[in-house]
Amino acid sequence: MSIFKKLILTMLFFAIPTSSNSFELVRDVELEEFTQELLLPLTRASNLADNRIDLYFINSNQINAFVTSGQSIFINTELIAQSHTYDEYLGVLAHELAHINGGHISRTKNQIAKLGERSMPIYLLGILGILGGEADAGLAALMVGSASVQDRYLYYSRTQEAAADQSAISLLCKSKQPVKGLETFLKRLDRSTLENARDYQYKTTHPLTVDRYNWIKNSYKKYPNCKYKLDTKLQKRFELIKAKLLAFTHSQEEVLAIYKNDNSDPAKYALAATNFFNGDKKNSVSKIKSLIKSNPTNPYYHELLGEVYYSQGNFTLAIEEQKITIELMTNINDLHLMMLGSYFLAESSKENIIEGINSLNKSLFINKNNSYSWYLLAKAYALNNNLALAQYASAERYYLRGDRPLALSFAKKAIKNIDKNTVEWYRANDLIEIIDEIEKKE
Q1: Minimal CA–CA distance to 208: which of 196, 220, 222, 221?
Q2: What is the domain partition of the chain in residue ranges?
Q3: Rounded CA gap, 317 and 313, in Å?
Q4: Residue 167 confidence (pLDDT) above 50
Q5: Are the C-beta atoms of 177 and 87 separated by less than 8 Å?
Q6: pTM > 0.85: yes or no
């Protein structure tokens, strides 16, 4: 990915590098909202009805998804890009949710503990990759270091995969969702990996595709009336999301090959985004305005237009478009408020700096773990000549990033000048105490 494209990715598809730099998390409101909407009927049909699933999207060209401890699902962007219909994506989500329902993560940890000390590197170095089926035999051997331990772990994982496939069909039927998506997605993956030998396929955490077909088809027999059709409105939304995702994660040549002679809304969306990335902002604005004309209430069109205006240095228009975006949203979110705050700071008048501070504080009220909002808030306070609060915001940011020495340094500087008994004063004191306690235990 080019440096320019990565900078844009950070703004619209908000990219979050992990502490290990092993993968890059991507945030996008349109993608998050749609995925949560798909998950809602599934969670209601499971024992997680009252709990929200935490979603994380990884910028990767590998087709993969996996779960971790707690209720977190990680999804690679390429998995969505390669799904033809939303029910294929839904089928994978149901499969991963079934892992959470079945308690497979905690059970896997227990199983690993039984395998002996030699298996510990699995957990320490990459259990996430192995659980997701990403690791091949060579990587698994590298992590485990013992063929016998490797085989025992992989067999255990395959039994979990079988249970998850069957449970996924049950969840889809109970929630009255289309049920064939998981099967069709697996068939596409199977065609793309026909060159792999049987033994190679066997040495993975996911079982043979032919076995998975059998499990899924047997599950169909239990639900003879499970014949729910695709929701056309959801499919149209999925096609738009997929188009934008392709533009953000693939080269312009690939995007043009797919959408060049297409005049549909998804094609316009993809071309608007890829033109934006490649410097053709005039055509990008033209296509987005065409989309807005046909559907003025789609907030994500206004979001993208605001980003183009921002990149052109037209901060006033960027602010206007982002305000429209927020007004059109059903649920307010931290990312749109963060972006609005960023636009206000870029305009940099005294009035807009205050507006930026207000937007960023609202963003952090919704999601206090948004480290980029803390960064922008520190910048805003500095522009507003409030050094103490800028130092406090920096302390929060560095604490979230895992840099305790810098977090402690900024918190100690901030506490000297922050007004006592304010929220920031108490939180700065808390940070100092928390970091001191952690360091005492180490």
Answers
A1: 196
A2: 3-232, 386-442
A3: 9
A4: yes
A5: yes
A6: no
